[in-house]
Amino acid sequence: MDFESARHWLVEHKLRAVGSIWATSLLGSFAYNFSQPGVKTSVKLIHARLHAQALTLAALAGSAVVEYYDHQSGDKAKRYEKHIQTSQNSDLKL
């Protein structure tokens, strides 16, 4: 997968990507923390949540960078331009 196709997928599926990262990081952190002996269960849960939260914030920041890049490149405007023209044409027919 090249950079451009990955960027296109992220632009179209930002929330799905962030949600997937959150779920994966939470499960991975649970697995790691529960493999550590000698730590209370409540501490393991707190650490797992904190790790997942940190990775989710990083994913949101990455999503913001992708959104900014998309906005600066003009690709976003081009995608929405088609929708605006279509709705204007349908309004004219009424």
Automatic annotation (TrEMBL):
<dbReference type="GO" id="GO:0005739">
    <property type="term" value="C:mitochondrion"/>
</dbReference>
<feature type="compositionally biased region" description="Polar residues">
    <location>
        <begin position="85"/>
        <end position="94"/>
    </location>
</feature>
<dbReference type="GO" id="GO:0033617">
    <property type="term" value="P:mitochondrial respiratory chain complex IV assembly"/>
</dbReference>
<feature type="region of interest" description="Disordered">
    <location>
        <begin position="73"/>
        <end position="94"/>
    </location>
</feature>
<keyword id="KW-0472">Membrane</keyword>
<dbReference type="Pfam" id="PF04588">
    <property type="entry name" value="HIG_1_N"/>
</dbReference>
<dbReference type="InterPro" id="IPR040153">
    <property type="entry name" value="Rcf2"/>
</dbReference>
<keyword id="KW-0812">Transmembrane</keyword>
<feature type="compositionally biased region" description="Basic and acidic residues">
    <location>
        <begin position="73"/>
        <end position="84"/>
    </location>
</feature>
<feature type="domain" description="HIG1">
    <location>
        <begin position="1"/>
        <end position="78"/>
    </location>
</feature>
<protein>
    <recommendedName>
        <fullName>HIG1 domain-containing protein</fullName>
    </recommendedName>
</protein>
<dbReference type="InterPro" id="IPR007667">
    <property type="entry name" value="Hypoxia_induced_domain"/>
</dbReference>
<keyword id="KW-1133">Transmembrane helix</keyword>
